[in-house]
Design brief:
- With 179 residues, the protein is mostly helical.
- It is 57% helix and 5% strand.
- It contains 7 helices and 3 strands, in the order H-H-E-E-H-H-H-H-E-H.
- The chain has helices spanning 7-20, 27-45, 64-70, 89-102, 107-115, 118-123, 139-171, and strands at 54-57, 60-62, 136-137.
- Strands 2-1-3 form a 3-stranded antiparallel β-sheet.
- Helix 1 (7-20) crosses helix 2 and helix 2 packs across helix 7 (139-171).
- The termini are far apart.
- 30% of the residues are buried.
Length: 179
């Protein structure tokens, strides 16, 4: 089965979105955003959005072809203006949701976040934190981990909802009369 798109197309969409909204995006930041787009797509749809793999580098998940494409920017914002990418509404909504959730964080925060998550940690085993690993971060591991995060989030919402419902129902109970 063919994937819906490519990592480059997702990157182009994100770069264009960032430019249109006055947000600077570096190669490091872009890598993490593209990673989370793929990770959550795997969790929600149980299939990859694109076929390209991420490796477990010192800076977190890195898609090597994207890195090569943008490495000449070093730590500077990407100034390339890619053509508009057309996606289905489902894919576009998915990317926008990830950007809403993760776009507010800087690249270094996202890097630290990835370092704390199982997919990167499992692929980085046997390497020191400051060295790049050529090991691929398994899509299966990504899917399982982020689905677990989804389930954990759902349980939390249910518990919070039940707690809020209990608080709401308590509002209907009259206060005891003071003598």
């Amino acid at each position: 089965m063919m994937a819906e798109t490519t990592a480059n197309a997702v990157a182009d969409y994100i770069i264009r979105f960032c430019h249109e909204h006055g947000v600077l995006v570096t190669n490091l930041h872009l890598q993490k955003l593209v990673y989370y787009v793929q990770a959550w797509y795997l969790a929600y749809y149980e299939k990859p959005l694109f076929d390209e793999d991420f490796q477990s580098w010192a800076s977190g998940p890195v898609q090597p072809e994207l890195y090569e494409r943008f490495k000449h920017y070093t730590w500077n914002p990407i100034s390339e203006h890619p053509d508009k990418v057309e996606f289905t509404k489902e894919i576009e909504d998915h990317i926008l949701e990830v950007l809403e959730d993760y776009g507010r964080y800087n690249a270094f925060y996202l890097e630290r976040m990835c370092h704390d998550e199982d997919p990167w940690r499992k692929a980085h085993q046997g390497f020191s934190v400051d060295e790049n690993s050529p090991k691929v971060i398994s899509k299966k591991t990504m899917q399982r981990y982020y689905q677990y995060m989804l389930e954990d989030d759902e349980e939390e919402k249910e518990e919070t909802g039940a707690s809020e419902q209990r608080q709401e129902s308590r509002k209907d109970i009259p206060e005891p009369a003071t003598p």
